[in-house]
């Protein structure tokens, strides 16, 4: 039962992070809902990490382009298409 309580605590912390200052909607705390929300929290964490890596990579590339004198203004559009993030650059 200790693992279940740990998952419930992780879900509560994740929901608090997601909702911030807004109240967390009420939900029935049982093994099924806890498992579903825990799975969502894990997937959300992975997606956040992936997006962070993409952003850091883009910052690094922009810095490299600027240092090479290749800098030119571009606009960037980020699109979520299914489970993938698509970044489109327009010049």
Automatic annotation (TrEMBL):
InterPro entries xrefs: HAUS1
Record bears the keyword Nucleotide-binding: no
GO BP, sorted A to Z: cell division; centrosome cycle; spindle assembly
Record localization: Cytoplasm, Cytoskeleton, Spindle
UniProt-listed Pfam families: HAUS1
Keywords: Cell cycle, Cell division, Coiled coil, Cytoplasm, Cytoskeleton, Microtubule, Mitosis
Domain of life: Eukaryota
GO cellular component, one term: cytosol
Family from the record: Belongs to the HAUS1 family.
PANTHER family to which the protein is assigned, alphabetical: HAUS AUGMIN-LIKE COMPLEX SUBUNIT 1
Entry protein name: HAUS augmin like complex subunit 1
